[in-house]
Write a structure and sequence with these properties.
Layout: H1 25-38, E1 47-48, H2 50-57, H3 61-73, E2 77-80, E3 84-87, H4 95-116, H5 119-135, H6 142-159, H7 163-182, H8 191-206, H9 209-230
Antiparallel strand pairs: 1-3, 2-3
Helix pairs in contact: 1-3, 4-6, 4-7, 4-8, 4-9, 5-6, 5-8, 6-7, 6-8, 8-9
Length: 231
C-alpha cells in the first residue's frame, strides 16, 4: 500500500506505464482502483465489470478479481451474488465514528513514528516535508491536494514500523478521504489544511513524539470540523 495516493502522472500516459517494477499485476490493479474509488472517479454505486477494467488497465481478469477481493475487505466495493460488484456508498453519518477511531489511532501512529523511524527514514521524512512545501503552491486541483494528503499519511503510517497499525490506518484514511471527496466542491481550498503536515513531518523527523501527537490530534479534529461546516 506504500504507493497508494501518489500524485497522478502526466495526462496521456498509458495505464501499463504506471505499474511499478516491483508490483504484481494484482497489486497494480488494486492501487489504481483504490485511488479511483477514494477520490470518487468511480462513483458510489457504480458497477465494476472485471472484463472492462481488465481492458482499461491492460492486465488479466484474474489479477482484477484478486484486487476486487481486497477492495471488498477494505469496504470500498460491495459484491452481491448474481448481481455483480459495485463501488461502496459513502455515508456522511459514518464521519463521527471514523473520526473517533482516527482521533485515537493517528496520534499514536505519529508518536510511534517519531520514536521508531530509522535514521534513513527520518531523512526521507525531512525531504518529503520540503517536497510538500514546494508542491502546495503549485497544486490547483482539490483532488490532487487530497492525493498529496494521502501520501503524507502513508509516509507516517509506514514510519511506525507496525504493519498492523499501518493497515488499519490506511483503511480508515481511505474512508475519511471518500467523505472528503463527496463534499469537495463545497470546501474552500484545502491547501492550508494540508500545510499542517509540514510541521508534523518535521517533528517526526526530529523525534519529538509529544509534538507529533499533539499536531496530529489537531489535524484530525480540523478535518472533521471542515467537513461538518459544509454539511
Amino acid at each position: 500500500m506504500g504507493h497508494a495516493g501518489r500524485l497522478p502522472v502526466e495526462a496521456g500516459a498509458s495505464s501499463a506505464s504506471l505499474r511499478h517494477d516491483e508490483e504484481s499485476f494484482a497489486d497494480f490493479a488494486y492501487r489504481m482502483l483504490c485511488d479511483e474509488l477514494i477520490v470518487l472517479d468511480i462513483k458510489p454505486g457504480e458497477p465494476l465489470n472485471d472484463e472492462v477494467i481488465s481492458r482499461r488497465l491492460g492486465v488479466g481478469r484474474t489479477p482484477i478479481r484478486e484486487a476486487m477481493k481486497r477492495l471488498e475487505s477494505d469496504h470500498l466495493v460491495v459484491a452481491y451474488p448474481r448481481r455483480g460488484t459495485f463501488a461502496a456508498g459513502v455515508d456522511i453519518k459514518d464521519l463521527a465514528e471514523i473520526s473517533e477511531i482516527r482521533q485515537l489511532l493517528e496520534p499514536v501512529a505519529a508518536a510511534r513514528a517519531a520514536r521508531h523511524a530509522s535514521p534513513q527514514l527520518r531523512k526521507e521524512i525531512r525531504d518529503f516535508a520540503h517536497e510538500v512545501a514546494q508542491l502546495l503552491p503549485r497544486i490547483q486541483s482539490q483532488q490532487d491536494l487530497m492525493r498529496l494528503d494521502m501520501r503524507v499519511h502513508r509516509m507516517i503510517y509506514r514510519a511506525t514500523g507496525s504493519r498492523h497499525l499501518e493497515d488499519i490506518l490506511v483503511r480508515y484514511d481511505n474512508l475519511a478521504t471518500r467523505i472528503w471527496s463527496l463534499v469537495l466542491e463545497k470546501l474552500p481550498p484545502v491547501s492550508e489544511h494540508i500545510a499542517q503536515h509540514i510541521e508534523l513531518l518535521e517533528c517526526i523527523a526530529a523525534g519529538d513524539s509529544d509534538a507529533a501527537a499533539r499536531l496530529t490530534t489537531r489535524h484530525v479534529t480540523d478535518f472533521e470540523n471542515l467537513i461538518r461546516a459544509v454539511l
